[in-house]
Specification:
This is ABM domain-containing protein. Residues 9-97 form the ABM domain. There is one protein chain. By secondary structure, this protein is of the alpha+beta class. The chain has one domain (9-100): Alpha-Beta Plaits (2-Layer Sandwich), CATH 3.30.70. Helices cover 33% and strands 26% of the residues. It has three helices and four strands. It has helices at residues 22-37, 66-73, 78-88; strands at 9-16, 42-49, 56-63, 97-100. It has a four-stranded antiparallel sheet. A hairpin with a 6-residue loop joins strand 2 (42-49) and strand 3 (56-63).
Amino acid sequence: MTAASDEYVTVIWRTRAKPGREADLKAFITAAVTPSRHDAGNIDYEAHEVEGQPGSFVIYERWVSREHLDAHLGAPRMTDLVPRMLELIEGSIEDGITLLRPFRPAR
């Protein structure tokens, strides 16, 4: 794992499967985790299903920099993944994205 600094970027992505596509979306997300973890600049990439809400998922990602995140989003495999994902989720991908930037008090 890469050491984190105040420059890293955290992504929280929340999404919900279309009715009847819950298992399909879970399998899709499961298959996407390992390749994303191997992208340059990835610190952490974890997929979660919301407890008590089957079909509701949260992905937590940390990247060394915004440039690394952008490279991940622009990876050639995304050209195939994004349209397939849109068939499985309610709403858009962008609707569920929250970008976080850390800050720490001065020492």
